[in-house]
Amino acid sequence: MLLIVTLAQTACIDLAGLRKFTDSSVEAGKKFKELAADKYRSCAAELYFLDTRGRGFNEIRLFESPDSFLTKDTVPAARKQQCEQVKIDSAKFVAANKVLMTYLYVMGQLAGDNVANTDKEFKAAKDALEGLPGGGDPIVGAALSIANTITNIFMDVQRQKAIKKAVLENEKHIGAVTGGLSRYLTTYISQLENERGAAISMYEFALAGHIEFNSARTLKTPTQDPPIQYDALNVVAATSQLELEVAKLNGRIKGAKAFQKVLQDITEGHTELYAEAQRGFNKKQAVRIALKYAPSIQTSYDDIVKAFD
Amino acid sequence: MPKERMTFDEVMRQSELFTEVADKVKDFQLENFQDLRKNERAELTEIEFGLRDVARRLLNDATSIAWDDMEDAVEKISKATAKMKKTQKHLTSVKRILMFATAAITLAGAILTGNPITIGTAGLELIGLSDKFAEEDKEAAEAEEDAVG
């Protein structure tokens, strides 16, 4: 997104393409909140699938929502707490992401000589980061530095110079924030994989119970009809349910990896622009950098949307 | 001398390893489903879920875990978890799985609290078990060879 800065400085730019690039980047950034909320959902869903494991096929239900499941007495308090912790920890990363995206958005707007307005969410994100207890968490410090840059940009009369200065000042902070966000996404991907494993194991155990029941019935010829949980029709329904669940999770894993690619592109793009700024900020070179990363971000954005819409 | 720190990647590897061992316990139960008694199934499930709890905690803490004051504990953890990986192929009975997984959970608890002494003790116990299983399997294989020969 920062690449817009230089694109807009060049007379022969394709504005339609620029707009598409801006929209994709901003939309990709917005999706982070959904990914973070999904990590909490996934944690609860993993517990749900493990909790449901010992039951027969007709007892298998789709996971509804973390809030309804985590209030149940059957879930041990310590496990509930683990998912609650995910929710608490995620807030910090959501705020850091918001700051990063606002920084890039503001830079893009200013490059086009637009009046950049930061929204209330940015203010809230900045406040949230400032309100966190100390402890030297690198992502918090880096995000706050970026947030301060955004605030200072509005005070600088010569905005184009302010942009260049911001690129030079924030290079290390951008890397710290994108690195922290990417690591967070790695834990999210791992969480989704664990959820997928738990969903599959729920099915496997239901199947094992089904087979055991049928072999016992064959050997002992029971006097009563089999209980409904061993109805073969339920096996079919559960199988298709599992396939849908696994496909959805695979899509989200792909979406999270695509978001990591967006972060990587932002980092690399910013680093190249930083080097260019150090040399004096040649517009032609800066546009070349922008065009190098824009298509990749667009492709990643499409994958993210596909996974979470 | 700078204190050693466990990196994000290392914590993630620990988490994945505990998930791997939990999967091994689950697979054992599924493969032997009809031969296991009800209480054995319950015990295996409990130990498997315990391992998954550890994996989840490490996963949750990976982005912010503080590994200061660990000194040489990192090396002990690395040695013990390397053994964990190798030992998976020797987990061929309920008894072994329960012994091994309990030791693994103890080690995980020590890692999460960051106490180097407890880490050292738990690590040694796990390594000892691992060596014991490997030795027993080696002797059994040799005895089988002798019997065939």
What's the helix and strand layout?
The complex is a heterodimer of chains A (309) and B (149).
Chain A lengths: L2 H6 L6 H38 L13 H4 L7 H35 L8 H11 L7 H16 L5 H62 L11 H48 L3 H26 L1
Chain B lengths: L7 H24 L6 H24 L11 H15 L6 H20 L2 H33 L1
Largest interface: A-B, 29 and 22 residues
| Morphology call of chain A | elongated
Structural class of chain B: mainly alpha
State the helicity of chain B in percent bands. Answer: over 70%
Number of strands of chain A: 0
> How many individual helices of chain B?
5
Q: How much strand content do the residues of chain A show?
A: under 5%
Order of helices and strands of chain B: HHHHH
Strand elements of chain B, count: 0
Helix content of chain A: over 70%
Main β-sheet description of chain A: none
Number of helices of chain A: 9
Low-confidence stretches of chain B: none
Distance between the termini of chain A: 22 Å
Low-confidence spans of chain A: pLDDT under 50, at least 5 residues? 5-19
Describe the biggest sheet of chain B? Answer: none
Question: Would you kindly provide a brief summary of this structure?
Answer:
The complex is a heterodimer of chains A (309) and B (149). Chain A is built from 9 helices and no strands.
